[in-house]
Amino acid sequence: MRLTFYGGSKLVTGANYLLEAGGLKVLIDVGLFQGSRFSEELNYEDFKYDAKTIDYVFITHSHIDHIGRLPKLYGSGFRGTVYATEPTKAIMEVALPDTLDKTALEGREMGHPPLFSQEDMEGVLNLTHAVKYREEIKLNETVTATFHDAGHILGSSLIEFVVQENGQNKRMLFTGDLGNPPVPILAPIDYVPDVDYLILESTYGDRLHPSKEECKQKLQSVIVDGVKRGGVIMIPSFAVERTQDLLFYIDELLHQNRMPRIPIFLDSPLAIHITKVYERFTDYFNPAAADFLRQHGGLFKFDWLTFTPTTDESKKINDVPPPKIIIAGSGMSQGGRIIHHERRYLPDPKSTILFIGYQVKGSLGRRILDKEPEVKILGEKVPVKCFVEAISGFSAHADQLGLVKMTHEATRGRGLKKVFAVQGEDYSARALAVKIKLDMGIEAIAPDSNQSFEL
Ligand SMILES: [Zn+2]
């Protein structure tokens, strides 16, 4: 069998891997390349393979850097079957139309034809088949696949492939993005032993996160200090999982009287929509979160929290005097409503911007986080005078320790033959590969884009 890395190689985004085995061509993830723009130029290039010849696509999870080019694949002639877990499919149905709008807008600005059309999007969703964790999917006589819980976002998966070749079973595991447990809502990671080849994410392959309790304390102190200064606390947040987890932590801080009661706005139509999808899939939650939901009649209903789905409601946030908390997308400030709040409050020395997620190189979020004194927003120069804070431990990605643990679990039994570190910037991916090689004696590399391996 052969494995080729078409995206997500020494890059966090654009995940796209081709597995050729048992006479089949199977893609794992068809993600969008993201950087300074929501959709980078690279997305407009043709696929390096013939989309018409692809039999199956397996989706690890519904983040855009894993699903964003799926409709383009349909537009390029793909008519096979897409497999995803039930929540992944439900979130795709919300996230892809949002991607269509954002890429159409950016495409016009960049003078491109649209990346994909409404028909492409509907076409690929019609080909998408929802499955449950641990359900064995037989692709043909020699290849089977199974989804396992990756604990990253709702419905996220490790995908295991078993290929029979020359009387041997070869087992391959794609981690997609791996979670950073414990998390308030999700069930724990469902580790898989007896793996030959591990395709391991490496976003934080060179770093360790602080503990969740330390993160909660930091969240508390950022909010309390921000309120004392009487400013606005802006939190750019990813619509899927991070926002829901953050609301859960804020609710807890309020319950425990660890922060003052101030207005909190969830100013993201996408996050509001996805929050509703979450409430449909409580059987994917951990038992404590499912109980909480049953007792409270909703996970994200607490005093002081206002959802502002419409533009008018969003504008009215400006009339509410500070202190106040505004949670809005996009998570890396590559558009979305957060940039309007940033334009208004970044120059205010009393205000705070708090990053709780990964900021990709080149994004506006990364430039603010790297303390550039001035940034450009909507063509305007905006000085950054507010407090800039970051909490990396709320990340939905495992740190180096979590990734090494994943490797230990996967090598149990028959022993890993090779690890491929993907979905990390060059340095993180290589640092993780070196760590695995030195500490565990397992062959590990960070593959290059378009590199193929016979396994
Ligand atoms: Zn992800």
UniProtKB/TrEMBL annotation:
It holds the Pfam family Lactamase_B_6. InterPro entries: Beta_Casp, MBL, Metallo-B-lactamas, RibonucZ/Hydroxyglut_hydro, RMMBL. Signal peptide: none annotated. GO terms for molecular function: hydrolase activity; RNA endonuclease activity. Residues 13-227 form the Metallo-beta-lactamase domain. Residues 243-368 form the Beta-Casp domain. Keywords: Hydrolase. PANTHER family: CLEAVAGE AND POLYADENYLATION SPECIFICITY FACTOR FAMILY MEMBER (PTHR11203), INTEGRATOR COMPLEX SUBUNIT 11 (PTHR11203:SF37). This is MBL fold hydrolase.
